[in-house]
Write a structure and sequence with these properties.
alpha+beta, six-stranded antiparallel β-sheet, 16 helices, about 55% helix
């Protein structure tokens, strides 16, 4: 991926800036800053060049800034970043929002920004996380490979190896298996129904005789008659249930009976829910009479309800048979039709069982391929295959950074084995400088895998304050590594470390000057 030019307007502290990366060629380029407003180099806007590049490519900033922070505070609108990458022109802005993509002057912009981003990343062959892992090292690198668990490590390598085709295949297989499983469930329901029907028809065929009484019922009634009697009885029974509900003894009636039984002068403490009368203290004659009225009213209601229940019960009609019995007897009587139903159900059951067997065979076969395309299948095999290359490249870069004092190897589960001076060490026990060296070596090795696996390799690398936690000895190793990397790439270095800065003397430089709140490239 050859990045040619970066242009940005009203971006952070810049009003306007342009950087032609092609003029630097391969080699080291120091990015130095002078902040005339605050003194020193902090806050001059050195990292904004990297921010503009990342925003143009992926529509997001490294520092996760909001729109108000990105758009220049003086102009407050018209922020625009333009990138020339390979044969692509990318234009992305805020206030107003703009996202346009061109290839050799021909528009590739899609109807939605998300689809345009997909088209851009497909053309670049890289996404945000992979680019940040492979081209940006130091304070803005969001990936520490050795801090990740084994599953996350495999996912990172999957991204570097461009294994999307395996994941797409796995998703397709999963969808096909789901569809087959749903069809099998439908067939199970059908097979259960057919088995019940066959059992019913078989019983009918074996029980081909019905009694004279049953024949008499079939002659006197039809199925509608039986259903009408059943509906009539349901209505009568519903009325009887309503009346029986009236016979239920309420708490008021129970309390009143108990109070009368205890008699006048007994202690009471309750409230009638029906009329709200409170019975508190000693029961007097008036209270006794009130309880008697409650009981009498209930007893009269019960007497009336029992009479009505008796009347409704007399309306019940005896059913000669149930609708189910009538249907069975009718079917048995027309035995020839049952035989054809039995034969049809048996044939349908055979077809459904055969189809289910074939689908189960396909489901199991797809299950094999589901495992094959999983992270325990082909992906694990690919990782095992590149593990040796990964180990070789890690130690190649560590040789520069540590003069061979630290070596690192990964096993098949991507668990690291670290030796410092020939002694085994856990990653967590390393010093800050040692961790930085090891992680830098790992990320550079992963970048090598990326370029080998899909040819996606950026022509630029950014080292932003990568010298943090490194002593003078470590700075010398880092410098040796930078000298090696510069052979075929443009390596941009931002640093406040005086030792690293001294090694950058004599190399190309980009100077950033900030004055009165405005940054410019000089």
């Amino acid at each position: 991926m050859k990045i040619k030019k970066i242009r940005f307007t009203n971006f952070y502290s810049y009003h306007e800036a342009e950087l032609d990366l092609t003029k630097y060629g391969s080699g080291l380029v120091g990015i130095e800053g002078i902040n005339k407003d605050g003194g020193g180099s902090n806050g001059a806007g050195k990292s904004v060049i990297l921010e503009a590049l990342v925003f143009g490519l992926f529509g997001r900033t490294i520092r996760k800034s909001n729109e108000s922070a990105m758009v220049n505070l003086t102009n407050k609108r018209g922020m625009m970043v333009e990138l020339e990458v390979e044969d692509l022109l990318i234009r992305r802005g805020r206030k107003p929002s703009v996202f346009e993509l061109f290839r050799n002057g021909e528009p590739l912009t899609q109807a939605h920004a998300a689809r345009t981003q997909e088209a851009l990343e497909e053309a670049l062959g890289v996404d945000y996380k992979t680019f940040m892992s492979a081209a940006v090292f130091g304070q803005h690198s969001t990936v520490d490979f050795l801090d990740a668990n084994p599953d996350d490590k495999r996912k990172m390598i999957n991204g570097f190896l461009n294994l999307d085709y395996i994941f797409n295949k796995k998703a397709d297989i999963k969808a096909r298996r789901s569809k087959i499983k749903s069809k099998i469930r439908d067939l199970d329901v059908l097979i259960t129904k057919l088995q019940k029907d066959i059992y019913k028809y078989d019983t009918m065929l074996n029980d081909s005789l019905i009694s004279a009484e049953q024949v008499d019922i079939l002659q006197k009634y039809d199925l509608d008659d039986i259903l009408q009697i059943q509906k009539h009885n349901w209505r009568v029974e519903a009325e009887i249930r309503k009346l029986k509900d009236l016979l239920k003894v309420s708490s008021d009636v129970r309390n009143a009976r108990l109070t009368m039984r205890e008699g006048i002068g007994s202690d009471q403490s309750w409230t009638c829910k029906s009329c709200g009368t409170k019975f508190e203290g000693k029961l007097d004659q008036e209270g006794y009479d009130r309880c008697a009225r409650i009981v009498n009213i209930y007893d009269e209601k019960v007497k009336v309800a029992k009479g009505e229940i008796k009347a409704w019960k007399e309306k019940l009609v005896r059913m000669p048979c149930t609708p189910q019995e009538y249907t069975k007897w009718s079917t048995v009587r027309g035995n020839s039709n049952v035989r054809s139903l039995y034969d049809e159900s048996r044939a349908e059951l055979d077809d459904a069982s055969r189809e289910k067997f074939e689908l189960q065979d396909k489901y199991e076969m797809l299950g094999f391929w589901d495992k094959a395309f999983s992270e325990k299948g082909l992906i694990k095999y690919v990782i095992r295959t590149v593990r040796e290359y990964l180990n070789e490249k890690c130690n190649y870069y560590l040789a520069y950074l540590t003069q061979g004092s630290i070596t690192l190897t990964f096993d098949d589960e991507l668990v690291e084995n670290i030796e410092v001076g020939g002694n085994m060490r856990y990653y967590i026990s390393l010093s800050g400088g040692e961790k930085r060296k090891v992680n830098l070596a790992v990320m550079l090795a992963l970048q090598s895998i990326l370029s080998v696996s899909n040819g996606t390799e950026s022509n630029v690398l950014f080292f932003d304050e990568v010298a943090e936690n490194l002593d003078e000895h470590g700075i010398k190793g880092l410098t040796d590594l930078l000298y090696e990397l510069r052979k075929d790439k443009t390596v941009f270095v931002i640093t406040h470390n005086p030792h690293l800065a001294s090694y950058m003397e004599g190399h190309k430089k980009i100077s950033i000057i900030k004055q009165e709140g405005v940054s410019r490239i000089s």
